[in-house]
Design brief:
Strand content: over 45%
CATH topology: Immunoglobulin-like
Number of domains: 1
Shape: elongated
Structural class: mainly beta
Number of helices: 1
Number of strands: 9
Distance between the termini: 52 Å
Low-confidence stretches: none
CATH architecture: Sandwich
Order of helices and strands: HEEEEEEEEE
Length: 125
Amino acid sequence: MRQFKIPLLLVIFLLTGCQLSETLSFVGESQSWSAQVILHQASGKESEDVVLKYKGDNLEDVGIFKYYIDGPQWGTGLDGVELNEAGVFKEVGASINEKKTPENAELAIKIEWNNKSETILLKRE
């Protein structure tokens, strides 16, 4: 009887330890920006990585800016962010929430900088 319990417990631990995870990538471009939002889904939670690239030549035109991502049932954003010397902004694990974005969803990201604003529709890559 004891020999049966040990393999059964091992199987239970393995099954509960194996969590399904999925990564969804959404991309889009506007006149001034390219954007990518990568959603990491696991264990009923979701986090996002955000990559924004300014397409203009003069990075000083941007200065401090903000962005807001609008998802199907959620939204998140940051204010007071800056580009690096390559004209790129990256935020890894921007937020962790109990949300689940559908695979066929479309996201929108609004970027505001230097009295300008652009909204980019992000589609699944």
